[in-house]
């Protein structure tokens, strides 16, 4: 998240959807190091990892994602083999461009009340319970 409140997002090369940068951790990698590596690989932006803001489970695919709030610390936006666009979006743009299951991850990082724990089906949130 930039000081002006804009959030870093990518348009994925494989399916064209807007999401936050991320990926799978290497075996010997801490979550924080993995976040920094994935963001740099996908966007060209160096980040300082701040705090865990949410845990999100895709109940359809069995994938658990950890989301960390980060601050940019250098670099220049660029696309990669995994991204066709890199952009700093406003919270409203996040809501417009992303499915609920992905928009909520960025919006949760803004509220300061985390870490949030949520489940979804890949597109929509599923109520707790």
Automatic annotation (TrEMBL):
Q: Which InterPro entries match?
A: Nudix_hydrolase, NUDIX_hydrolase-like_dom_sf, NUDIX_hydrolase_CS, NUDIX_hydrolase_dom
Superkingdom of this protein's organism:
Bacteria
Keywords assigned by UniProt, alphabetized = Hydrolase
What's a Pfam family this protein contains? NUDIX
Domain (Nudix hydrolase): residue spans on this chain: 1-111
Q: Secreted as a keyword?
A: no
The family note in this entry says: Belongs to the Nudix hydrolase family.
PANTHER family under this entry?
ADP-RIBOSE PYROPHOSPHATASE, DIHYDRONEOPTERIN TRIPHOSPHATE DIPHOSPHATASE
In its UniProt entry, what is this protein called? NUDIX domain-containing protein
**Organism, as annotated:** Streptomyces osmaniensis
């Amino acid at each position: 998240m930039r000081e002006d409140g804009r959030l870093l997002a990518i348009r994925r090369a494989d399916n064209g959807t807007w999401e936050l940068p991320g990926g799978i951790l290497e075996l010997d990698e801490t979550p924080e190091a993995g976040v920094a590596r994935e963001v740099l690989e996908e966007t060209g932006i160096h980040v300082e990892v701040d705090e865990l803001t949410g845990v999100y489970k895709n109940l359809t695919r069995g994938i658990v994602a950890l989301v960390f709030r980060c601050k940019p610390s250098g670099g220049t936006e660029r696309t990669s083999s995994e991204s066709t666009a890199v952009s700093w979006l406003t919270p409203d743009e996040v809501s417009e461009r992303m499915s609920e299951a992905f928009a909520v991850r960025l919006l949760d990082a803004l509220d300061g009340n985390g870490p949030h724990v949520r489940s979804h089906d890949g597109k929509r949130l599923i109520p707790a319970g």
